[in-house]
Amino acid sequence: MKKINLIRVFGGYFILLLLASCNQSGKKVTVAGEESTAESYRVAIELILEEEPLVDSLADQLGETGLDSYRWKNHLVLFGEAADTSGLSKKILKTGIKLQIKYYNAPFYAFDRTKDCGDSSVVKPWRDYLLTANLVDDSVAQAEYIHYHAVQFDEWPEVAEGFCYAGFQQLLVFRTGRQLMLVISIPADKTLDELDPKTVENNPRMVEWNNIMSKYQEGIEGTEPGETWVFLDPVQPREK
User: Fold this and answer.
1) Is the bond leading into 225 cis (omega within 30 degrees of zero)?
2) CA atoms within 13 Å, Cβ hemisphere of 105
3) Within this chain, domains 14-104 and 109-232 share the same CATH topology
4) What's the pTM value of the predicted model, to 2 decimals?
5) CATH dotted code for 109-232
6) What is the pLDDT tens value at each position of the chain, 240 positions in all?
7) I want to staple 38 with a disulfide (CB 3.0 to 4.6 A). Which of 56, 66, 106, 196 is the partner?
8) Nearest to 134 by CA among 170, 181, 87
């Protein structure tokens, strides 16, 4: 099982939820204590199929959306600019494949290198890593988790410092229901295995943060016992 050091159905058939979710794309959100808009960041759409073998077929049929495709078992996640989701519901409908959808249209936490490292030397292109996990089934614990992230830049600055030192370009955390979607963007010529250990290098507060966060997280349905964050494998990766 692949591990990292990082901050360790809502259902309905796709067409109805997708249309409802797209109507929210312009809402304002609070990111790290600052008001932002959902359009400021890329979005993720998770398609949960009844049959795992159909994932590849669906990814092929949706290959021209302009979105990147990632998969884990019977989950297919499309990630990219909100503008590229236009007409997506019709494309999905034409496939005739039964599925459920979750829409991640605004991160509740966002780390950006230019803003949080005082570094204008953002590297392009990026390599994106997508991971997913659940929050524990406890509303009080969930609220605590969200609060930790809301105050992290002020009360746990070492976390962002760890991301800066490691060379992370952006890190987004989305939430739909109990499920979290984590997106880590790094320089395309690097790997997460190379950079992730640097986040905790000479940074005991980052280690403490990771340990605390792990208490609020558990694996989604289909994970092995003791498995929390799972990596979604790129199907059609594109450099940004």
Assistant:
1) no
2) 23
3) yes
4) 0.84
5) 3.30.70.100
6) 444 555 343 333 333 333 333 333 333 443 333 444 444 899 999 999 999 999 988 998 887 888 999 999 999 999 999 999 988 988 888 899 999 999 999 999 999 999 999 877 788 899 999 999 999 999 999 999 999 999 999 999 999 999 999 999 999 999 999 999 999 999 999 999 999 999 999 999 999 999 999 999 999 999 999 999 999 999 955 445
7) 106
8) 181
Top-level class of domain 14-104: alpha beta
Report which residue type is found at 106: A
Burial of residue 208 (number of CB atoms within 10 Å: 0-12, 13-18, 19+): middle
Give the DSSP per-residue string, 100-160.
EEEEE-S-SEEEEHHHHS------SSEEEEEEEEEE-S-HHHHHHHHHHHHHHHHH-HHHH
User: Could you state, in order of their start, the residue ranges of all structural domains in the chain?
Assistant: 14-104, 109-232
Radius of gyration from C-alpha coordinates of the chain: 17
Query: For residue 86, what are its two tokens?
Result: 């236009």
Tokens of 66: 């302009």
Distance CA 165, CA 160 (A): 9
Helices and strands in the chain: count of H runs, count of E runs: 8, 12
